[in-house]
Amino acid sequence: MKPVPLRSPTVNAVSASPRRRTGLYLLALPCVLLVVLGAFLWSGQVQPLQPAAQPPAPREAMVDVLDGPGGTERVQIDVTLHSPVDTPAPAILLAHGFGGSKADTAEQARELVRRGFTVLTYSARGFGRSTGQIALNSPDYEVADARQLLDWMARQPEVLRDGDADPRVGVTGASYGGALALMLAGTDPRVDAVSPVMTYNDLGQALLPNNASQVRIGGATPAGGSFNPEGVFKQAWTGLLFSAGGAPRPTAGTPLTCGNFIPAVCAAYSEVAQYGRASQQTLDLLAKSSPKTYNSRVTQPTLLVQGERDTLFGLDQSDANARQISAAGGEVKTIWFAGGHDGNPPGPEVRGRVADWFAFHLGGVPPVPDPGTGFQFDIAGRPQRDGDIPVRTMTAPSYPGLRDSRTPRYSLPLDGPVTPVINPPGGSPAATSALPGAGQVLDAAGSLGQSLARDLPGQVAVFRTQPLEEQTLISGTPRTRLAIAAVPGQPQPADAVLFAKLYDVGPDGQRQLLGNAVSPLHISNVPADGSPVEFDVALPGVVHPIETGHRIELAVATTDQAYALPREPSAHLVALAGDRAVSIPSVRAASSSAGSVPVGPLVGLGLVFVLALLLWVISAIRRKFNDDPDPRLAETPLVISGLTKSYPGKKAAVDDLSFQVERGQIVGLLGPNGAGKTTTLRMLLGLLRPSRGEVRIFGHRLQAGAPVLSRVGALVESPGFLPHLSGLDNLRHYWAATGRPMLRAHLDEVLQISGLESSAKRKVRTYSQGMKQRLAIAQAMLGLPELLVLDEPTNGLDPPQIHQMREILRRYAATGRAVLVSSHLLAEVEQTCTHVIVMQNGSLVAEGSVADITAVNGEATFRVDDPEEAAEALRTIEGLGLVEIEDDLVHADLAGHKAAVAVNVLVASGVSVHQVGPRRRLEDAFLQLVGEEQR
Question: Mapping DSSP to helix (H, G, I), strand (E, B) and coil, where does residue 445 land?
């Protein structure tokens, strides 16, 4: 292992050839350009901005309207008109949510004004400073008021008109205001575009849902539900809405218990709150206040925005609006965002999409690209510690099922026995699912918040899928089919009420209730003789990725605290029916950007990228000319000559080090802490620049990023792995980053060599320390490099794994490759390595084969059956040195004789020789070489 003389002279820190000076000039050129570009961009940023014209102050007014069944009731509506600098401009009528006022929409109004719109915000009757009572978006009251507000807007000079008394206007609002927007569009043709946000389609189904159907639930859209009669009263949410009606205002003939609602609404609430059921009169009142009654006349361009975290108005409500408006001939675009009544309200990005919708369809403001009729939905990640939720937006060409396409669905088999469940007397105690409107708080609470969802023993039947073999995205309303039967001899009313829900269950058993939502099921006429009744179930609509290794759990409970429950005790048998599976909708979509990039920074980034590319090209040219390959060393994996690394004011970490590694060798790099081993490894991998000397790999002079490094695999210190990915995926992503074909990675061989075949598909976070170390070694072996450099490869490995690693390295070197190993385990180096390099204080102390290092002075040890006879026989060899006996061992100084000569003498004397080897172990030689034996 003597260093081979190198053809080129050593380059020191001060010498520079003309070629090197030219390379430095080329390197400096893009740096200068970068400085000039930075100065240009900076100077552009600090230019004083011209003061922009400010829009006029908002104008407030009280508008008199006449409403009621006969149009004779006078009410005053509190409004604020926000106008831009340039008027007249297209207008937006901006409605608020239930329990709010015009103050809640002021920020969105200012955003729309900045886009160039005139905006009218107002407080609906019964809210804020507006007079009158709440009629729950009645066409005779709230919708009639909104039509008269359009009349008022048409008279304002700030509003662009399409004709007499015809303002160019779009209507938007959230929740209560969103339903008003749809109903106004369906009753007033002057509305030119509409965008309802997280609103309902059928208020009766929203507050008294029934997601069970004894006929098959079909439909091609992703979130179609089961809008069946005789629903279960959503008492928690409805109670909150009723309390939001505010304190009662003095009105003749109205009970104080009615709050500020008109008598008809008060009577309807009193009925369902007391009895848990709605009469036909109440259902007719709710239908009259629902967009479903008017959607057949909505032909204006409609942007539907719905929240994915919403136990009040779920995705099925938006889906129904989309289907009805599309059937009427309206242009529909749908957005599901990561929020809702149980999460964050629409943020600036979502509000910006609403503004874009109106900018395109109303015109009169700075133009935007056609927003089209596609479908966008958000995939929310886990909440961060600061409360933020990372979101990825997906885009599909259209909302599936409105035209020709259908939503892809995947059937996941369920398993579970027929289970008896009971409804306790009075429906108490009851299971919990979610607190109305508290989804954001529960998310922030992490596992504590998730633990709120709890089913009670004896009240729930559970059915499970097998662990998923690949990630599955739920985007819409899952479906399943169940059967229910009475238990003969047990209490059993004619009707049954159940609650179905889906859990995401991890490998550790942690359960997450999808959407914090349940699907109430009301099944009528259950036979008392135990005959089963089969029915389809529309489960809560969600957007949720189920990770590999997780399973889906279907729970069917008899109680839920958010709903009114039967008071009578009962017992049922719940079982899977049909194909015994859950049908998962998964919309085909591609990831899209959530926002636009400003042109200025984009141009700047592009220029920086071009300059960086130029720098890379110049560096590649320099490497090509400075590589200077030596053909004599083309088959030598590694040659180090005069390698030195020093730091100002400190002793050299590596000082004039020279050695080489040949094919088929396993070379151990030894030395005490601080000897310079890791520094040497980092320099030979191009991670550190030497102060002097050079490294050649297969004859090529090494520089940072040199192409020849593709023939080297390395493990220096512990690499980082992504814990949520499997070991196999980590290796694939690492190899893909090299830009080389995946077939050249030799993944199967590497996993077999490292012993990770059976655990390659497990997530890295489940790996032990030893498995992570083997994965790191497997990463170094990707592509089966010709030179393998390992720094402490046995860290974290147990003895069997160390033995296996020893065999791996031997087999690896036997193929003609070379291995350089740095290790503190001298016994393992002695058994594994063919050659050894010993360093101390940055310098070479010794090098050679393991046998040469351990056999200093020619001392050998013989294990024999007769030590006395063996000693006498050895002393007969001419010139032999000292012979000593130790138990069954005989130590002899061969003084230049070969061990084979001594063995022949022993055998000729009738002595049985069991073992022959150097007298000293590698550890003894190492300690002597580094001067530790005298301490």
Answer: coil
CB neighbours of 32 closer than 8 A, spacing ≥ 6? none
In order, the DSSP letters of 544-557 are EEEPTT-EEEEEEE
**pTM as predicted:** 0.63
- Cβ atoms of 523 and 533 within 8 Å: the answer is yes
Q: Do residues 501 and 433 lie in contact, with contact meaning Cβ atoms separated by under 8 Å?
A: yes
Is the C-alpha dihedral spanning 824, 827, 831, 837 positive or negative? positive
Helix axes 769-781, 747-754, angle to 10 degrees: 140
Binned average pLDDT, 10 residues per bin, the chain of 935 residues: 37 38 49 50 45 85 95 96 95 96 96 96 95 94 97 96 96 97 97 97 95 91 91 90 72 70 90 90 95 96 96 96 96 95 91 96 94 93 69 93 89 96 90 72 50 84 94 95 93 90 93 93 92 96 94 96 92 96 94 54 66 70 63 88 88 89 90 84 86 89 81 80 89 86 84 82 87 86 89 76 79 86 78 86 83 66 86 82 82 75 85 75 66 47
Residue partners of 724: CB distance under 8 A and separation at least 6: 547, 763, 764, 765
Give, to the nearest 10 degrees, the angle between helix 799-814 and helix 747-754.
140
811/470 Cα distance (integer angstroms): 35
As a dihedral over the C-alpha atoms of residue 378, residue 384, residue 388, residue 389, rounded to 10 degrees, the angle is 10
Cα 476 from chain centroid (whole Å): 19
Whether the CB-CB separation of 711 and 688 falls below 8 Å is answered with no
Instruction: Give the whole-angstrom CA distance, residue 628 versus residue 583.
Output: 64
Which is nearest to 127 in space by CA: 290, 266, 249, 236?
249
For residues 897 and 878, what is the distance between their CA atoms, to the nearest angstrom? 10
Residue 345 is classified by DSSP as P
Q: How many CA atoms lie within 13 A of 71 on its CB side?
A: 3
Strands 169-174 and 91-95: parallel
Contact between 827 and 890 (Cβ < 8 Å): no
Looking at 705-798, list the stretches that DSSP marks H as alpha helix, in order from N- to C-terminal side: 727-737, 747-754, 769-781
How far apart, in whole angstroms, are the C-alpha atoms of residue 613 and residue 606?
10
Helix 769-781 to helix 727-737 angle, to the nearest 10 degrees? 30
- What is the distance between the terminal CA atoms of the chain, rounded to a whole angstrom? 30
* Beta strand pairing call for 472-476 and 590-592: unpaired
Give the whole-angstrom CA distance, residue 71 versus residue 525. 45
Query: Which residues, including other chains, have CB under 8 Å from residue 284's CB and lie 6 or more apart?
Result: none
Q: How far is CA 932 from the centre of its chain?
A: 53
Contact between 845 and 925 under an 8 Å Cβ cutoff? The reply is no
SS3 of residue 885 by DSSP: strand
Q: How far apart are CA 787 and CA 417, in angstroms?
A: 58
pLDDT score, position 221: 95
Alpha carbons 153 and 169: distance in angstroms, whole number: 9
- Cα-flanking dihedrals φ and ψ of residue 269, to 5°? -65, -45
Neighbours of 255 (CB within 10 A): 12
Q: Classify 39 in phi/psi space as left (phi over 0), alpha (psi -120 to 50) or beta.
A: alpha
For residue 11, give the DSSP letter.
P
Bridge partners, residue 835, by sequence: 667, 849
CA distance 894 to 876: 12
The stretches of 340-445 forming alpha helices (DSSP H) are 348-362, 439-444
| Residue 876: per-residue pLDDT | 83
Give one word for 724, left, alpha or beta, with left for phi > 0 and alpha for psi -120 to 50.
alpha
Tokens of 789: 């450099």
Omega prior to 383 cis, within 30 of 0: no
What is the residue type of 742?
M
Q: Contact at 8 Å (CB) between 30 and 618?
A: yes
Tell me what pLDDT residue 549 has.
93
Query: Which neighbouring-strand residues pair with 462?
Result: 555
Are 544 and 371 a contacting pair, CB within 8 Å? Answer: no
